[in-house]
Amino acid sequence: MSKKLLLIDGNSLAFRAFYAMYNQLERMITHDGLHTNALVAFNNFLDWLTEDCQPDLALVAWDATSGKETFRGDLYDQYKAGRKKTPSEFKEQFPYLRKLVANHGLHNYEHEGLEADDIIGTLSKLGTAAGYEVTVVTGDQDLIQLASDQVTVKVTKKGVTEIDAYTPAFIREKYNLTPDQIIEKKALTGDTSDNYPGVTKVGEKTALKLLAQYHDLDNLYAHVDEMKQSKLKENLINDRQQAFRARKLATIITDADLSIDLSDLTYTGLNVPELTEFYEKLDFKQALAKLHALQASGQIEGVEQPAQKQLTVQELTVDNLDLLANVKDEVAFHLDFTGENYHTADSVGFVIGNPEIGYFGSRQVELLQEPILKNLLENDQIDKDLFHVKAQWVLLKRLGIDLKGVKFDFLLVAYLLDTVGNDNVLSTLAQRFQIYLTADEDFYGKGSHYQIPADTQAVLDHIGAQTDAIWHLKEPTFKELKEHQQDHLYFDIELPLAFVLAQMEYQGFKVKPERLEEMGADLDKRINDLISEIYRLAGEEFNLNSPKQLGVLLFEKMGLPVIKKTKTGYSTAVDVLEQLAPQAPIVDFILQYRQLNKIKSTYVDGLLAVINPADSKIHTRFLQTLTQTGRLSSVDPNLQNIPMRTEEGRKIRHAFVASQADWVIFGADYSQIELRVLADVTGDENLQKAFLAGEDIHAETARAVYGLADDAPVDPLMRRTAKAVNFGIVYGISDYGLSNNLGISRSEAKSFIDTYFKEFPQVHEWMDQIKKQAHEQGYVETIAHRRRYLPDIHAKNFHLRSFAERTAMNSPIQGSAADIIKVAMIKVNQMLQEKHLQSRMLLQVHDELIFEVPANELDQIQELVPKVMDSAIKLKIPLKVDSHFGSTWYEAK
DNA sequence: GGGCTCACG
DNA sequence: ACGTACGTGAGCCCA
C-alpha cells in the first residue's frame, strides 16, 4: 500500500469550525476569558481526520499572515476586498490553533506571498510525484481542481461533520467536468467571497452548459463569434478580460518555491504530555477525558495515571467462585444493563471486587444467584460501593437477591454535591473528580447502534473500569460531603430513601385496563363529534393538533384578534382561547377537544401502553437525582401528573386500584407545606400566628393584607388575591409576575407586595438575606443542607440574573418541603415494618403519599401515617396532614 | 430535536 | 429598558 500524505487547509477549516460552533461562542470561554469554540471544533476535526486517514506525512497550511502581497493581490487590487473584518473572538484563537496542530503531531506551514491553497497545490504535486496517496482537506471548493487519481480532495459540507470526497469520478458525476475544468468554471462565474468577477450574469448553471459545449475558456472565445446573438454572447465578449483574469486568480500554484520538503513532514502522532497541558490550560474537559480514556485503554502511551491502571477482570464461572472467598469487609459492585428502564432491561454483565483482591465478573448474571455471591450481596456486614443503588436493587431483586449493606452510591453523592449539569451518567460524573472512563455510549453505541461487543473480556473490562472507578470515587466524594455538612442528608435521608423508592417502584400500582378502555371508547366518540363540528364551523379540515395550522385558521382566515405571540407564531394556549371564546363558537369546541384529546392520548392510551401484562401493574421510576430543588420526578410513566383538577380528567383515577381484594387506596397529604416551611425558615412571627389562628391561611393572609379584623368575613376576591400573593411569595415574587397572574396593573401588584411585606416583615428580611447569600457564596441551602448552586446569580444579563434570584428564594422553600416528605417516607416505611403491617406505600406526589391498605389495617393506618408525617421534621409551627381513602385512587379524595 | 401545549405539585 | 412567576414529563408537530 502506498504511503499517505495529508494536507490540510488551516484557514478555511478554522473558519468553518468557528461558525459551526458559533452558537456555543459565549458558552465556550476559559477562565481567562479566551473563546475556544473554533479550537474545540478544530480539535475534534483533527482527531477524526488523523484517525480516519492514518497519514505518514501531514501538514496544515496557513495563509501568509505578514508582509508581502500575494501575486493575486498584484493582479487584481480588489482581490478579497470587502470581506468583513475577522471577529476578534476568532482572531484570539489563531495562535492556539497552531499549537493544537503541533501537539497533534502535524506540521504547520506558511510562506510569505503564498496562500494556503498554493502551498497545498505545490506539496500535493510533489507528493504525487513521489508516489504518495494524497488527501487534501479544506472548507473551500476551490481546491477540488487538484483532484486526480492520486489526490482526493475532501470538502466539508454543512458545519464540519459532513464531508464530500472529490475524486475525478465524483467531479464528473456532480458537474460533468474534469478537475482542470473547475478552473474554467470559476473563470466564468467569478468568486464572490474572494471578490472577483467572471462574466456578467453567468452563474454555475450557465457555466456548466458552456463548458459542456466548449470545454474551456480558450476554445469558448475562439468560437464566441459563431454564437447566435444573445445577451449571454454580449456579456461574454464584454467581459473577456475579466474572465481571463479570473482564471488566473482561480488557478492554484503547483510549483511554488517552498522552504520545506516532503521529508520534513513526518506525522509524529499525539504529543500526549503537551496536549494534556494544552487541554488543561484551555479547560477542554471532554477532550481531556477522551485522551485519558485512550491512555487508560492502552491505545496510546502518555502521562502516568496512577488511579487508572489498566485492569483486567477475571471471568467467573460456576467452577471458580471460591475466588470470592477472600472478600472481607468492602467491595465495589456494578451490574450493567441495557437501556434506561431497569424494570424491564436485560442485564449485560457484572463485576465485583476491589483493588486489593482484584476484580471478578461475568456476563452470566445468573451466577449471582449462586450462594457465595448471593450471600455476599445480601450480607449487611460487607459494605457495597455502587453507582445508582435504586437501579441495582431492582435488578438484583428481579434475580431474587436482596441487596444489603450499601454504603456508597456515587450517583446519589454526586447529586448532593452539585445538582448542576448532572446527566446521571457515570463517565461524565466521574470526570468531575478527574477519573476518566470510556462512556457507555462510546463503548456500546447509542440508539439503534447499541450493540454489546462479542468480545466478553472487553465487556468485562469495560464494566470493571467502572467498578474500579466507583471504588476510587468514594473517598474524595465522602470528603466533600462532610465539608458540605451533608453526611446526615446522605446517610439518613437519600440513601435509605433509595431503598424505599425501589420497593415502591417494584411493588407497582395496579391499574384496571378495562376501566381505561371504557373511558377510551367514550372519549373517542366525543372527540370525533367535536372534530366534525370544528371542521364544519371552520369550513375545512385541518390538523387540530397543529398549533400552526390552528393559528392560521383563527387569526388569518377568521380574523380573530392576536392576543399573545410565541417565538414561532401565534399562541393558541388555553388562556388565549378562553379570551377568544365569546367571539367565535368554534373556540369553545377547540378547548373541549384539547381537554379530551389530552386525556385520551396521554392518559388513556399512554397508561394502557405501560401496564405490565404479567401483574397488571404500572411500575414508574422515580428519578431521585434529577431536580434542582430536591424533589423527585417520575417517568415511564409519570404518575405525578395524573389529572385531578377537572372532573373529566380525574376519572382516570378510577382505573387505579389496590392489588388485592378487600384492600383500599389511602392518601395522606400535607396541607400548605410550602407556606409552613416559609413561616419556619423566615421565622416570621405574624405568619406563624396566622397559621396558628385559623384553618384557612389564604383567608388569614387576606385579613392581614386588607387590614380586616381577626374574625371578619373575607370576600372571595380578596381571598383569591391573597392566595395569588402567597404563591408569588413562594415562587420568588415580582410585581410583573403577580400582575400577569391576577390581571391587574403592575403598580397595583406592587402595592399588594409592599403591604404583604409590611405585614410579614421577617419574610421580607429573609428574601433579601437569601439573595445576598446566593450572591456571596453562589448557592442556597434547605433545612437538611441540600444545596443548589446558582451560577447565573452573577450574570450580567438581567433576565438570567433575575431568574437566579427568584430561584434563590424558591429553592430553599420547595427543597425543604422535599426534605420533610422524604424523611416522612423513610419513617412511615420503618413504622410499617416495625408494626408488621402489610400496607404498602405506592406513590409520592410532592406533598402527598398514596398507599394500598388491607381493610383490617385501615384504622391503624389512618391514625399512624398522619402522625408520622406530622412529626417527620419539627418546625416552629405544626405540620398538618389530611387523609382520605376509597376503593380506587379516585375515591381517596 | 426544539417548540408548543397541558397535566401535576 | 429589560420582561418571568417555582419545579417537573409526555404527546404532538415540524423542520
UniProtKB/TrEMBL annotation:
Residues 308-482 form the 3'-5' exonuclease domain. SUPFAM superfamilies: 5' to 3' exonuclease, C-terminal subdomain, DNA/RNA polymerases, PIN domain-like, Ribonuclease H-like. It catalyses: DNA(n) + a 2'-deoxyribonucleoside 5'-triphosphate = DNA(n+1) + diphosphate. SMART domains: 35EXOc, 53EXOc, HhH2, POLAc. One of its GO terms (molecular function) is DNA-directed DNA polymerase activity. Residues 3-268 form the 5'-3' exonuclease domain. Residues 649-857 form the DNA-directed DNA polymerase family A palm domain. InterPro entries: 3'-5'_exonuclease_dom (IPR002562), 5-3_exonucl_a-hlix_arch_N (IPR020046), 5-3_exonuclease (IPR002421), 5-3_exonuclease_C_sf (IPR036279), DNA-dir_DNA_pol_A_CS (IPR019760), DNA-dir_DNA_pol_A_palm_dom (IPR001098), DNA/RNA_pol_sf (IPR043502), DNA_polI_exonuclease (IPR054690). It is an enzyme of class 2 (transferase). Pfam families: 5_3_exonuc (PF01367), 5_3_exonuc_N (PF02739), DNA_pol_A (PF00476), DNA_polI_exo1 (PF22619). Keywords: DNA damage, DNA repair, DNA replication, DNA-binding, DNA-directed DNA polymerase, Exonuclease, Hydrolase, Nuclease, Nucleotidyltransferase, Transferase. Transmembrane segments: none annotated. Its EC number is 2.7.7.7. GO terms for biological process: DNA-templated DNA replication; double-strand break repair. Belongs to the DNA polymerase type-A family. Single-chain monomer with multiple functions. This is DNA polymerase I. It comes from Convivina intestini. The gene is polA.
